[in-house]
């Protein structure tokens, strides 16, 4: 015990295996424990960085997918607009055609009425001609 005290005052200590150490056994144990805690902390930090990296990658993929869907939606909307414009143009063409056919029908109606009148006049003339004989 006397020798241990003398060594202790000189900064030398015996560990549990009776090896001579510069650090006190308690300080050495605390240092070893701190080293293990630091190693565990570094491992956990690395694991956390890996998880965060994975999340960032996932968010990037989702953003790309969302952007792609947005572009598809814009494309579909533009296609619908152009189809609607085509339909509108077709409708206008058909309306013009209908108007043209109505005018043609009116001309034919007038022509028919005129021909009917001419036929009636001619029939009347024929009847008068026959009765004169």
List keywords for this structure.
mainly alpha; two-stranded antiparallel ribbon; single chain; 87% helix; 133 residues
Short description:
This protein has 133 residues and is mainly alpha-helical.
Q: What do these coordinates show?
A:
- Helices cover 87% and strands 3% of the residues.
- It has 133 residues and is mostly helical.
- The protein has one domain (1-132).
- Strands 1-2 form a two-stranded antiparallel sheet.
- A hairpin with a 5-residue loop joins strand 1 (13-14) and strand 2.
- The longest helix is centred in the middle third of the chain and has 108 residues, at 25-132.
What's the domain count? 1
Per DSSP E runs of 2 or more residues, the count of β-strands stands at 2
Note the beta-strand portion: under 5%
Rg computed from alpha carbons, rounded to a whole number of angstroms: 54 Å
Order of helices and strands: HEEH
Biggest sheet details: 2 strands, antiparallel
Low-confidence stretches: none
Q: Which whole number gives the mean pLDDT?
A: 90
Helix content: over 70%
**Cα distance, first to last residue?**
175 Å
Given the structure, what is the number of helices?
2
Structural class: mainly alpha
Major sheet: arrangement of strands: 1-2
General form: rod-shaped
Pfam family, one: IFT20
Subcellular location: Cell projection, Cilium
Protein name: IFT20 protein
InterPro entries: FT20
